[in-house]
Write a structure and sequence with these properties.
The protein is α+β, with helices and mostly antiparallel strands and 619 residues long. 42% of the residues lie in helices and 15% in strands. A hairpin with a 2-residue loop joins strand 8 and strand 9 (155-159). It is globular.
């Protein structure tokens, strides 16, 4: 994922060129293939390139077509064929193999700021329009790629790399207490617009940012609907055929390279993606290198066997990362680069980090099954969501359509859905008892806890795919700007065409237990995998005992020696809990790991190398 940065001065003074170069140099870790800047008076753009598609072979940024409008972007577009046809229909001459960045700029030159209505895929961009003296920035619909900005005095700074913005000498290290509280409660910032830093904002998904005459305007250009007009096919097979066509296209648009990886668990989502991707690559008739990577655990040997079965069936190499030892990992406090923000756990205790490194060692692209659950699985309480929001007409239309097609009484799933809803409500653990009481009171965290948990269904449902910070946070953690690993994660289930289709089809029977995916993968996946039920994972077997053993070691040192932490956490309360293994449940395990993750981030935050870079900036 390429790095981008933009600077603009609202007082018409020239930008600090030394600072622009320094910020661009800083992002070299995420874009090793090329590095360049462009500047003119009060504005400057910087870019570092990571090539991940065939079309990027000769890409150069910052890019212009007329020396009047300049762009830097990290972009992978869906539906290139249709977009090219639309652009050519407007008189634009564009080569078939033009890089996506060129298509974005052509779209802007035709449709101005409405260009985002014609773009699909994973993208963030910064456009400087010399003609209108306007900076225009956009972020994709689901927030697959991050975008940050800050206004300090007379300067606007924009980037897809949070730590890059922090290099500006006038950006303080002051924390945003609301984001800290959210992290302790939920493991992530539950606000779209903010970051862990008080001075730095986040551009929400499906939003644009416009700078003109020294003023910044942020506005939404798209919103995921809870429901769309019902698609009414007469034959059930038509639903499956249409779904598979879109599913195949979503994957095809993400495998525009000949060397890539895929995450492979034993579940339906990742195995379906791997199978379809292998078929697409083979059909091209050109050499390719496609490999699968699996997190392996002695506790979940059946999962590994399912994943291995699919890898053998489709004929791709299969690599394993053993997860069992990570619960005993002792983290190092000496990191070359501080994490931009705290995450769900400490990286050294997270096997996903090692999985990412292995995938990156093989290639620059990895396919993931994230998004399959909200997109496909939640049919059992679909009616409860609709009735909660007053969509009774849609509910009746689905029932009538079901009867007309299947000639039998619809399955309402009320009882099953109600049980599932209650399970979600009851499974939320009590809020952490080890948060500093003064901080809880000052930030009113109890009300925050109740509010977010009350919306838990919307957070994890298909509607949440475009309207919950949950997913955009996960995407940010996978980004090289966070992991420092040169690997681009692709999420086929977040293809806009596919999501819109799944919103419009009748949820019964197609969204009950992922029926539509299971039907589409008939004779494509082994039956043992295609028909298996959803698996819910529990704590590692020895987690409670290990945490008790470590409470008097590195955990105690981390909690007692981390500056600022006492403002947020009562370390004695947490250590007392860790001394009682019977009280460590699957629910509060994640709360514990979030707290340790925050302490670790605060600890490394105090000695990060970014200040060394920052002190060399010429103000």
């Amino acid at each position: 994922m390429s790095g981008i940065v933009g600077l603009i001065k609202s007082n018409n003074e020239p930008i600090n060129l030394s600072l622009l170069h320094q910020m661009t140099d800083f992002m070299a870790f995420r874009g090793p293939d090329a590095q360049a800047v462009w500047h003119k008076g009060k504005v400057g753009l910087g870019h570092t390139l990571l090539r991940t598609t065939f079309e990027q072979e000769h890409e150069q940024q910052p890019f212009t077509l007329d020396h009047q409008v300049w762009i830097v972007a990290d972009a992978r577009l869906d539906g290139r064929k249709d977009l090219l046809a639309a652009l050519r229909g407007k008189g634009r001459e564009i080569a078939e193999d033009a890089p996506d960045i060129e298509l974005v700029l052509h779209a802007y030159l035709i449709w101005d700021i409405a260009c985002v209505d014609h773009l699909m895929g994973d993208f963030v961009f910064i456009i400087w329009d010399e003609r209108q003296q306007r900076l225009f920035c956009g972020r994709d619909q689901f927030g697959i790629l991050p975008f940050y900005y800050a206004q300090v005095n007379n300067t606007l700074i924009c980037s897809n790399t949070l730590n890059c913005i922090r290099l500006h000498p006038q950006i303080s290290a002051k924390l945003n207490d609301q984001a800290v509280g959210d992290h302790l409660l939920f493991g992530m910032n539950m606000e779209f617009k903010t970051t862990i830093y008080a001075d730095i904002q986040r551009l929400p998904p499906a939003h644009t940012l416009i700078w003109s005459d020294g003023r910044v305007r942020v506005q939404r250009y798209w919103q995921l609907q809870r429901c769309l007009p019902l698609i009414r096919y007469q034959r059930p097979e038509e639903y499956v055929e249409h779904f598979y066509q879109l599913f195949e296209q979503a994957i095809s648009d993400r495998v525009r390279t000949d060397k890539l990886s895929t995450h492979l668990s034993g579940g339906m989502d990742s195995t379906s993606i791997a199978t379809v991707a292998q078929n697409i690559l083979a059909a091209r008739g050109k050499p390719f290198d496609f490999q699968a990577f699996t997190l392996s655990s002695e506790q979940e040997q059946q999962e590994d066997s399912y994943a291995g079965l699919v890898a053998r069936e489709i004929g791709i190499p299969h690599n394993f990362v053993a997860t069992d030892g990570y619960v005993r990992a002792v983290p190092s406090m000496q990191r070359q680069m501080c994490l931009p923000e705290p995450c769900l756990s400490i990286p050294e205790r997270d096997s996903f980090q090692e999985l990412t490194k292995l995938c990156a060692a093989h290639g620059r692209v990895v396919l993931t099954g994230f998004g399959g659950d909200p997109a496909l699985y939640f049919g059992e309480f679909y009616w409860l969501e609709w009735l909660k929001h007053g969509l009774i007409g849609q509910w009746l239309a689905v029932q009538l359509h079901y009867f007309s097609v299947y000639r039998r009484r619809p399955a309402f799933y009320f009882r099953q859905g109600w049980r599932y809803w209650q399970k979600i409500a009851q499974s939320a653990p009590p809020s952490p008892t080890w948060i500093n009481p003064a901080f809880v009171k000052g930030m009113d965290l109890e009300a925050r806890w109740e509010k977010i948990n009350a919306d838990s269904l919307d957070q994890i449902s298909r509607y949440g795919m475009g309207n919950s910070p949950y997913w955009s946070n996960l995407f940010a953690w996978a980004d090289p700007g966070y992991s420092s690993i040169q690997l681009k994660h692709y999420f086929p289930f977040f293809d806009l065409r596919l999501v819109n289709y799944l919103i419009a089809i009748p949820p019964v029977p197609w969204l009950v237990k992922k029926t539509i995916l299971r039907e589409a993968m008939q004779e494509r996946l082994p039956e043992a995998v295609r028909n298996r039920p959803k698996k819910v994972f529990d704590n590692p077997q020895d987690y409670s005992q290990v945490m008790q053993e470590m409470a008097g070691g590195w955990i105690s040192d981390l909690l007692s020696e981390t500056p600022i932490l006492p403002e947020y956490v009562d370390s004695y309360e947490l250590l007392a809990l860790l001394e009682k293994p019977d009280e460590i449940t699957t629910g509060n395990r994640f709360l514990i790991e979030r707290t340790l993750g925050l302490a670790y981030w605060l600890q490394t935050h105090q000695s990060e190398n970014i200040y060394t870079h920052k002190n060399t900036v010429l103000i």
